[in-house]
């Protein structure tokens, strides 16, 4: 990381290659067209490299954790900026299967499948509900932060989250009913 502070292009390339898959997964929760998501990831990495001097890590033993949180926030903010520019129109598309490959091989295959299924259900939500769900549930933003980032009221953020949860519950209930019918 020290090389990135002095704009060493080799270090930047290594950092980019190491975290590209993670960054794409973060962005893809907001932007569903693969080509657009890769553009957003690249834009976010440009922001990261330009503002690398702002990254602070007082605890060296937690460097990776702090770095990934900082990077994740920039990825999310860049994706939200893109959604705002495109009036939060729903994105359509999918990721190639290699994107879902887990770098930590200790993660169970079932967890990977469940994650893909959840993201597929979240993709079916209206854009405003999807944004609130992703930001609050998955990325840990407060309703106040969501309100400020999306230019909506706190009440609208809470309402959108409640409606997203209800729709996801309905999607899952429907899937369970279909599974019960198929098992008869």
UniProtKB/TrEMBL annotation:
GO molecular function, one term: sigma factor activity
UniProt GO cellular component terms: DNA-directed RNA polymerase complex
Ranges where the RNA polymerase sigma factor 70 region 4 type domain occurs: 117-168
Transmembrane helix as UniProt keyword: no
Domain RNA polymerase sigma-70 region, first and last residues per copy: 15-86
Pfam family, one: Sigma70_r2
Biological process annotations from GO: DNA-templated transcription initiation
Keyword line: DNA-directed RNA polymerase, Sigma factor, Transcription, Transcription regulation
Domain of life: Bacteria
Family classification: Belongs to the sigma-70 factor family. ECF subfamily.
PANTHER family: RNA POLYMERASE ECF-TYPE SIGMA FACTO, RNA POLYMERASE SIGMA-70 FACTOR ECF SUBFAMILY
Name listed for the protein in its UniProt record: DNA-directed RNA polymerase sigma-70 factor
Organism encoding this protein: Segetibacter aerophilus
